[in-house]
What we know:
mainly alpha, membrane, EamA_dom
Amino acid sequence: MAGRSCYTDALPFMAMVTMECTNVGLNTLFKAATLRGMSYHVFVVYSYSVAALFLLPAPFISNRSRVLPPLNFSIMSKVLLLGLIGSSSQIMGYTGINFSSPTLASAISNLVPAFTFILAIIFRMESAALRSRSSQAKILGTIVSLAGAFVVTLYKGPPIVFPHQSPSISLHQPLLNATTPTNSNWVLGGLLLTAEYILVPLWYIVQAQIMKEYPNELTVIFFYNVCVGVVAGVVALITEPNSSAWKLRPNVALVSILCSVRN
Length: 263
């Protein structure tokens, strides 16, 4: 019994570690794909389009098992808002990784609880009692998270992913300029990643409101993926008019797209 209780207590920690490792791996795959020519705008379009195709049967199957309210204009407009927030956060996030590194993205992702706490206070979903130990711990955690984000944004470590080099390039050619982002790009990437993780709590708040009105997760996520795919597609058509940027090959770009289908 004691062993089972210990395993139950450790399970949430193991799940969080697994999710963090998964996010680091996915961010690293994406960075490797962009270093080999994959456009991050096209990546978002393909990623959410594939996710929508996977979830296409879900609304028809899940609606049979329960009685749900009709999908009216109010619900669909909120789903569209969810898609706009999601597409904006994804584009900012992948642009930030392109300018910096997956390590920075994974580090700044720890700001989500801090931003969630701040927005919950702003929207009066939570109160902050300064004399409460719980509130003091949350405030202290928020300050530490923000301080850590400033440190990792302003400090740049060595690169962990190198771009694909042509065989004709000499092995003695210096790779510093080709592989290491400049300080200005690193800071810009950090700011874009911070903006992404400010939008993530907003995404959670809007999603929670939709779930109260229409409690069918698979249907909501399906239409969300469709909305993000359409919005990102419009942006990608403007930023990537060259048809060669849309071609997929059986390499790390295709693997990163398939692995990113996790919503």
